[in-house]
Specification:
With 136 residues, the chain is of the alpha/beta class. It has three helices and eight strands; from the N terminus they run βαβββαβαβββ.
Length: 136
């Protein structure tokens, strides 16, 4: 079996979150979805499980963080061009996401940030390795 990653996020409004992640380009895997959580597919091996607070709490060993006021993690998604980054951001903002800061340009990488309704923070970026600084 290929190695996979499942990112689990607690969300207050499951349908609003489904709509947001669908707008970003995720699809739903119905096999791992029900009324308390949805498996959102980014790629063949990368999944985001959006779970109601009750469902998430049933797996958790600590109290849930308030991700609207405190950062619990940064999740990053790479895309093939800055146009794809901008397109994803436009769709995510239209679906209700927020952009907490301006685009950051590191020369070899352009990065934008979007937060979902619960404050989960995603760094959307394009990296051109041909422009990566060479060691001297």
């Amino acid at each position: 079996m290929a190695k996979q990653i499942f990112i689990n996020l607690a969300v207050k409004d499951l349908q609003k979150s489904v709509d947001f992640y669908t707008a970003l380009g995720f699809t739903i895997n119905p096999q791992f979805s029900d009324d308390t959580g949805k498996c959102m597919v980014w790629s063949e091996n990368i999944f985001v499980m959006i779970l109601t607070h009750e469902k998430f709490a049933s797996f958790a060993t600590k109290p849930l963080a308030d991700t609207k006021s405190k950062l619990a993690g940064l999740f990053s998604l790479s895309l093939d061009s800055i146009d794809e980054v901008n397109n994803m951001m436009t769709k995510g903002l239209k679906a209700g996401g927020t952009e907490p800061n301006e685009i950051r340009d590191y020369g070899f990488m352009q990065q934008r940030t979007i937060e979902d309704f619960d404050g989960h923070t995603w760094e959307i970026f394009f990296m051109d390795m041909a422009k990566f600084p060479q060691q001297s």
